[in-house]
Amino acid sequence: MADMQALAEALVRGDRAKVVELTKKALDERLSPAKILNQGLVAGMDVIGKRFKANEIYVPEVLIAARAMKGGMEVLEPKLIEAGVKPVGIVVIGTIKGDLHDIGKNLVAMMLTGGGLKVVDLGIDVAPDKFVEAAKSNKAQLVAMSALLTTTMPQMAEVVKAVKSSGVKVKTIIGGAPVTQSYADEIGADGYAPDAASAVDVAKSLISAA
Known about the structure:
Elements (H helix, E strand, L loop, with lengths): L3 H10 L2 H13 L4 H21 L5 H24 L7 E6 L7 H12 L3 E4 L6 H10 L4 E5 L7 H13 L4 E5 L5 H7 L3 E2 L3 H14 L1
Parallel strand pairs: 1-2, 1-3, 3-4, 4-5
């Protein structure tokens, strides 16, 4: 019998080959795709998120676990779609215009995927109207943006403004090294996350409150 605990543990270890093998085995044994996702992959990423928050592991370990998660998701995604399993929510994410840093943003995107959300990654140097268009076309509930430079932070205010004036029903969340809760309040963003693990909790609470 496919063991969800073993699947979660393989993910925590970052053993991509094992995650793929156990995901396939679970599907062969007719386990529901939703169960494999939630009790195996998401449960594993949840452990990673908690350890990362507690400074027990660091970015490289998270990236390795996320790569293992991605392997499992590649096997599972077609089956989730067939079964009509909807993601917890849809998030459009990007690094704002003028900023070319993407490690933090990639980490958040991986953690959000690990939290059961569908992530549309727009990459780096993303203009405000591009965030709005992507939110509309993907029917997203959340726009997440990152900045690593104080000089590009004002672009976040432009994105928030563009989202609000577009009339699209979508919340905004911001993060990045120089970004603070008080800056989020100042520009009218709906949420702020100090790190990738917190971003998952904030994103989920914003989506469920929508």
